[in-house]
Write a structure and sequence with these properties.
The structure is a homodimer. Chain A has about 625 residues and is α/β, with parallel strands linked by helices. In chain A, the strands form four sheets. Chain A has a seven-stranded mixed sheet, sandwiched between helices. In chain A, α15 links the parallel β9 (about 385-390) and β10 (about 410-415). In chain A, α1 crosses α4 (about 80-90). The longest helix of chain A has 23 residues, at about 10-35. Chain A is elongated and about 90 Å long. Chains A and B meet through α7, α8, α12, α14 and α15 of A and α7, α8, α12, α14 and α15 of B.
């Protein structure tokens, strides 16, 4: 250990033991008062955290944003009573807040930790995610910040059944993250019974070592051994996983190592007796002195000049190509980092890799870890973009959902959207991605139709809060917009209009090109149609859409290369729902399970081609038989 | 090996070598003709599959449904040219179909395999899924069918980066699936470059062994060694993973072991030269004699008497409880099996476990493997139900999406939906699940409000095709329906009505109870409201809804415990979109990120409580100030 200020030195056994007693007492108290929560899962890890806090953690509680602070992530988020008890020991919350507000409305001391608390980096509670997030933070420390902070992740043993944990350890080893220490609280009991491996820490050890990390097995209640293990981790040249054999409910004899006590306050009498036996309520304050080295500079965030690519009108360019071009241009901003799921030659993150190799991280085919890394990098102030096929973001949907709970700013690009991809078939077609990403809290969903807008929206994403998603198309289509055009998030574009328009054709991505073709054919029939580019799917331009609907006789065709549920069509209906006017609406979407074929064949088979849009417009126009209907 | 019909005996080296040559030739030819596809990924595995097919696979091609047939799953679905070339060698497709229709519209020979072909069990193409599915098939064989068939899964090396692969191997070992053989084609090259571990088969070996499986390392082009390895697997008392070191593009010198050839036909001249060198086009037929043992009986599927639980009107029962009760009752049908994600005491799959322990499978906290196992069990004709918290189905969304491409019949239950769960906070709240599950192709989404309907819909799911999803609520609410009531999928229920109704209140699950309370208050104000139970979210009862909307002055409040996008509100708008009438619509949904609190507080904070529904109805009724608006 490096030199610490004197007051932080304390005998490991006595000081940490006293802290452990307080953490147990407080975990029992706050859950008893709340009437819910996970005291037994906190009690098993109390000794581990007491030693970490007393002897190894470096953290300036007055400045949670200080760049060289360590990071402590509770991947077992249900042990929040223990985490908040640590915060009390750090002096940043007081006893009253802990005991009286835990799990109550309005309190930042939620059932599972979220970054509403400034000392919490990421929301946890969906198991197997805190560790992947921590890998992202450690990656930032090792490869970008070049700071000495350490990342400490507390895992439960149940969550080691999640594949994402093994994706995370694999990437931790790959990137040599010796600044990462994982502490596994092997208390052998899950929610509904014994875990798969129980106290078989040797099997865990073999797995951890096979995945390239150092494994240290300890008795998690032997403070000296725990202290030694943490010291080994600090000196390790690899990520370290401390496999700590513990007893669930440790400190409350009535529930120790018993099934049936997960997620329940301990019985009142047993709790009171345990509190007495542990020495009653105390108010120890523990120093976690910041690292002696001065904080290095935070990543520069001053805007740099980004020169976006320019495309000639009419030139055929895929939006995924424009995304890659824009991403490479955005690399001029030193905080921009890119993650790839081994498909960079398809998504065109390869362009960034070539230009800025030091800020490009290959996650191979592990989409969950890719999002975890993005979240972790965002914790350190970076601006992560991650890309894979639109279909494969479904693999990481829980991580994306949790990124929103973390209020992390991450940017995802999904290429190869829809049946337009053609021959590869339905397994590779993103057809649910708009629904899934729209439903993420606070998300932005963008779906450009041409290269100019794709590049502009990619650039815009760098400054968007929350989870933002860009959907790109495999094939090359004509550039529709000149380089001067702007594409505000929440906006739309009218691409074709006249005062006589009788129907509105709305699309985004590939279907916008089909709308334009259909409009031309309708015009040739003497039926002028307006075309709107809904590149901003969420937020959608409700005002622009309403106005266009009004101007076109309230006849609207929406065409999308997506299943009908939750995508563009329903977004449009929701936007128009305050209209209080009758709407003639045709929704063209992919309704049958597609197969392989050419893009054109598959769009026709799905009923989202120019022919289909034209036919739908004609239906709305009363089979072009009723002249009254043609009046806007 | 057991005795095979004489014609199937052939020298391993010569017969399999000739087959391997044909498989290579055909893989080159069909992709060349299609102009796309993955020949190089097929060439690396051709020797492996040739030996398997010639010497180890038992399959009656005339009866793909024969219970004792082996199962061959290409987890590396992009090697479909190789799979279809095997089908040619089996004599079930002809050369013309293979070469002329591969990847063309209407052909079952899609870019990635799907069960449109009777010899394909599951759709693959999203990597890391075929193996989890195969674990499900092997689980059926070992624990339920008690048949000798073997499950052979061909994996790529890139996909070993997916955590789901490790979830699968862990469960394979846990359940002692010695009938499962995984063959990993370690060709060291992924789509965009070298894989993370390249040809480091020793690291793979350590991982496989640490996860409880037997590992056998071989040169994947040495037919004798491959044959030996497959024999070892057949005799193994554990699941076996054959780690076969191979060369991508093997057989076409110009592309062998070269980057840049993933997913591309080989150049014409190189392909033609390779075909010549391999002996040209042949039409070998390979026998894969069925196992000598007579087929055992398939699982009984005759309907048994299922006596559903009954609940008294007004009694407070959680829908999750009713799900568990009904599931236990459904166990009377011997084909019903249940999978748990270590939360059976919350979802109440525990009820089934107690009643039918032999058909209950604990998957621990690995939701991806849980869906994979469900899909695999469905392949063998079982009726799987799997349950976890609604929020955690997001973890397996890619698997659910692919189950739909597989056209598998699986049943999912998501408990603890929405902010109603209260204190545990947002990480545990399913708030995106309706959007995600609605967007799955061919899915059914059910959301009962009371115990009677929950039990009835659980029972109905047993006979539904495709992916069906039941959303249940944590808290106990009054039983609304008597035991005689029926709940057709696609139906709805009017719970309160009069000829004077001026507004329609629509809910499902917990919000239906809030609608009923709001309707009572509105009635007390002299403003009669109709209440509709939209328990069938997909398909939704468009006719019933339209009729109720017409009868209530086209004033509609929809309240849902879900984010606004893609859930009940948008389903209602889509259902009413053909209406062509002005609709006064209020959509109450969870718009802010929730925290912890009591269920009541959180529903109020989200604006989906009875108070909010009443207020929304009053807004629709013109601030209850305009008497004209009160006329229906």
């Amino acid at each position: 250990m490096s030199a610490l200020p004197e007051e932080a030195f304390r005998p490991a056994l006595e000081g940490a033991a006293a802290l452990a007693r307080q953490l147990r007492v407080d975990s029992i108290r706050c859950t008893a008062r709340a009437g819910s929560g996970h005291p037994t899962s906190s009690l098993s890890a109390a000794d581990l955290m007491a030693v970490l806090f007393s002897r190894h953690l470096h953290y300036d509680w007055s400045r949670p944003g200080r760049p060289d602070n360590d990071h402590l992530i509770f991947s077992k988020g249900h042990a929040s009573p223990l985490l908040y008890s640590l915060f009390k020991a750090a002096g940043v919350i007081d006893d009253r807040e802990l005991v009286e507000t835990y799990r109550t409305i309005g309190s930042p001391l939620q059932g599972h930790p979220t970054p509403k608390l400034p000392w919490v980096d990421v929301a946890t509670g969906s198991l197997g995610q805190g560790l992947p997030d921590g890998v992202g933070v450690a990656l930032a420390g090792k490869r970008l910040d070049h700071l000495d902070y350490r990342v400490w992740v507390l895992c439960g043993d149940s969550e080691l059944a999640e594949g994402s944990v093994w994706e995370a350890l694999d990437k931790a080893a790959l990137y040599g993250l010796d600044n990462l220490t994982v502490i596994v609280d092997v208390n052998r009991l899950g929610q509904s019974g014994p875990t798969e491996l129980g106290w078989d820490v040797e099997t865990y050890r073999r797995r951890v070592e096979a995945f390239g990390c150092r494994a240290v097995v300890v008795d998690g209640h032997d403070l000296r051994r725990v202290d030694d293990a943490l010291s080994i981790a600090e000196r390790s040249d690899r990520p370290t996983v401390i496999l700590a054999k513990t007893v669930k409910g440790k400190g409350v004899p009535e529930v120790e190592d018993q099934e049936g006590w997960h997620g329940k306050p301990v019985p009142r009498e047993a709790g009171e007796a345990a509190i007495d036996a542990l020495g009653g309520v105390t108010d120890l304050r523990v120093a976690t002195p910041p690292r002696p080295s001065g904080p290095a500079a935070a990543p520069e965030s001053a805007p740099r000049t980004v020169t976006l690519p320019k495309y000639e009108l009419g030139m055929k360019v895929a939006t995924r190509t424009a995304f890659g071009d824009a991403l490479a241009a955005l690399g001029a901003r030193p905080e921009v980092v890119v993650l790839d799921g081994e498909v960079g030659n398809s998504t065109f993150t390869d362009n960034f890799k070539e230009a800025w190799p030091d800020r490009f991280f290959q996650m191979y085919i592990s989409e969950q870890q890719m999002v975890g890394a993005a979240v972790g990098l965002s914790v350190r102030g970076y601006v992560p973009f991650a890309a894979t096929f639109a279909a494969f973001w479904t693999r990481a949907y829980d991580f994306i959902r949790m990124a929103a709970v973390s209020q992390a700013d991450i940017r995802l690009c999904g290429s190869h959207a829809g049946v337009e991809i053609g021959q590869d078939g339905p397994s590779q077609m993103g057809l649910e991605d708009l629904a899934a990403l729209r439903a993420v809290h606070g998300s932005t969903v963008l779906y450009p139709s041409d290269a100019t807008s794709a590049a502009a929206l990619t650039a815009a994403m760098a400054d968007l809060p929350g989870v933002s998603y860009l959907r790109t198309t495999r094939g090359a289509y004509p550039v529709l917009y000149g380089p001067g055009e702007t594409f505000p998030v929440g906006g739309s574009k009218i691409l074709r209009e006249s005062a006589q328009d009788q129907v509105l054709l709305a699309g985004a991505g590939v279907t916008l090109h089909a709308c334009l073709e259909a409009a031309q054919r309708l015009a040739d029939r003497g039926l002028p149609a307006r075309v709107i580019d809904l590149y901003s799917v969420k937020p959608i331009d409700a005002a622009g859409l309403s106005s266009a609907v009004h101007a076109t006789g309230r006849r609207l065709v929406v065409a999308e290369d997506h299943y009908p549920e939750g995508g563009l069509g329903e977004a449009v209906l929701a936007a128009l729902s305050p209209l209080y006017e009758p709407l003639r609406f045709e929704h063209l979407a992919v309704r049958d399970l597609p197969g392989s074929g050419t893009p054109k064949e598959l769009m026709e088979a799905a009923g989202i081609s120019a022919d289909d849009i034209e036919a739908a417009a004609l239906r709305l126009l009363g089979d072009h038989g009723d002249p009254r209907l043609r009046q806007p």
